[in-house]
Design brief:
12% strand, 377 residues, alpha+beta, 63% helix, 6 helices, elongated, phosphoprotein, 7 strands, Heat Shock Protein 90, two-stranded antiparallel ribbon
Length: 377
């Protein structure tokens, strides 16, 4: 099982869909604004015409009043009525012509917009495609370079470790606390740290290329939890930290990649020890939950602000941005390893009280949760 190599295409699809939605929203907002402007324009014209009609009616009524006072003849009145009818017809004709001209102008404006907008968007899309191509090329070269350098560093590191082993054997006949033996221990410790960093870089390269591999087979997750806690007991004891392990039932059978899940648990437990003050407490728990196995690692550290709970799973994220003991890739790798199993990972935290990291994996390979990549609310 591995991370789906369609991930870049899915991300591009999401970007394109977001762009389409934004464009639809923009089109809708533009249409609404144009409609509002036209409506306001129509209202202004209508009010102006109403005022003009009112003024003309008042003038006619005044003229009629004067005609009555001067006792105008019936023929004169009839002539005035005909002239007014002709004037009314002329006004209606002029208004109809003005309305038609306005309609044509609006139609022409809409036609021009409908012609220019696709051209502008086509130009934008071509620019976007060009930039994507350049970005893809740069990303490919970067990932290739990263993979080659990581592989070469791994080979060189293997030589250093072998030399350290030979040095340790040579110093075994002497005092283990001085000379070659001490140097060999120091080299092995530094080499182990370098190896972890290189492995993280190689995992990231595999994730970005969609080639992160997992080997799934049946196993006992409970036994894996015990193994993980035993691995970290010495480091916790140095800081006076108590690790409490709780497994709700034994065994906890499931289909998973034992090395990869061990990698996730190790990262979470190492972080918990790192951020828990001396004398603190760490809880590790494994349980069955609705067709899944759910693991959690809690600590009594400083906690994580709520707005950062999603960011901690991003690449190169580090608490406070000042701790340089790692690359800030651990939780990002954990997220992708869990997703490769079809599971979920998330964090909950309260400032000054501590944090709890949860992740799940399906009990059976292939029974992927429909919300595998989502965090619970």
């Amino acid at each position: 099982m591995g991370v789906d190599d369609t991930k870049p295409r899915l991300e591009r699809g999401e970007t394109d869909e977001s762009l389409r939605v934004d464009r639809d929203d923009t089109d809708r907002a533009l249409a609404e604004k144009l409609a509002a402007i036209e409506a306001q324009s129509d209202k202004a014209v209508s009010r102006a015409r109403e005022r003009a009609d009112a003024a003309m009616r008042a003038a006619r009524e005044n003229a009629d009043h004067r005609s009555n006072e001067t006792d105008a003849s019936g023929q004169a009145i009839e002539t005035i009525a005909k002239e007014r009818s002709l004037e009314d017809d002329a006004v209606r004709g002029e208004r109809a012509a003005a309305d038609e001209n306005l309609r044509r102008e609006r139609a022409e404006h809409a036609r021009v917009l409908s012609t220019l907008l696709p051209l502008e968007r086509d130009k934008t899309d071509r620019h976007l495609l060009t930039e994507r191509t350049r970005f893809d090329d740069a990303l490919t070269h970067r990932d290739d370079f990263l993979g080659i350098v990581s592989h070469d560093l791994k080979n060189l590191l293997s030589g250093i470790v072998m030399s350290a082993e030979l040095l340790a054997r040579d110093g075994s006949a002497h005092d283990e606390e001085t000379g070659p033996a001490v140097a060999a221990k120091r080299i092995r410790r530094y080499a182990a740290r370098m190896s972890r960093l290189i492995n993280d870089l190689m995992d990231v390269a595999s994730i970005e290329s969609g080639k992160l591999a997992t080997t799934v087979k049946g196993g006992d997750a409970g036994a894996l939890l015990v193994e993980t806690v035993e691995m970290f007991q010495p480091a916790a004891a140095v800081k006076g930290i108590f690790i409490e392990l709780e497994i709700t039932e034994r065994p906890l059978p499931a289909d998973f990649d034992q090395e990869r899940v061990l990698q996730v648990l190790s990262n979470l437990l190492a972080n918990a020890i790192k951020f828990t003050a001396p004398g603190g407490k760490i809880g590790v728990r494994g349980e069955r939950a609705g067709g899944e196995l759910r693991f959690s690692v809690s600590d009594t550290g400083p906690g994580i602000p709520h707005h950062l709970l999603e960011l901690v799973f991003e690449r190169f994220w580090q608490a406070g941005g000042t701790d340089r003991r790692g690359l800030g890739l651990g939780l990002y790798i954990c997220k992708n390893l869990v997703k490769a199993h079809g599971g979920r990972i998330w964090a909950e935290s309260r400032l000054a009280e501590g944090s709890t990291f949860y992740f799940t994996i399906p009990e059976t390979a292939g029974s992927v949760s429909p919300t595998a990549s989502a965090s619970p609310t």
